[in-house]
Amino acid sequence: MVDDFNYPKKLARKEMDAGKLLEQEKPFSQRAKIWGGFNTSKVVIGEDISIPHRAAKKEMDPPMEQEFNWKPAKPARMGYSCTFEKFPNYMENPLKFTQRRVPVEGEDDIKPFKMATNYKSRPSPSVTCNLRNMKASFPSVFRK
Questions:
Q1: Residue 4 contacts by C-beta under 8 Å, 6 or more apart in sequence?
Q2: Which of 35, 56, 39 is nearest to 48 (CA)?
Q3: pLDDT, tens digit, for every residue of 79-127?
């Protein structure tokens, strides 16, 4: 008698097809659907009635007329983009000539440079020689 070796596979296929027939066409969605409700939001708020536009307000007159031109309380410094005036015309920098001073025999000697402080920088001590670090590295040496 011939035995069908693919019978479990065929049975699983039939069950899967039966399950597919029970499924809906579109997959399940948890998004709430917009269905409109009984009234639109415009009707609830009252925007379905046309509201006339407001008339434009008249511009206010200045409280008083000034007799002098406006001047800032703290005018900006003169220079590029910091001034109310026009940009100044280009002026070439004059050449600077240096002249050496000739020492005069009767005058006192020029004092040498004097430092403002006697403090000299010193290196910070190394962390390897810190007692706490040494105790951690060599506990047998520091045992009591």
A1: 10
A2: 39
A3: 566 666 666 688 888 888 988 878 777 777 777 777 777 777 777 777 7
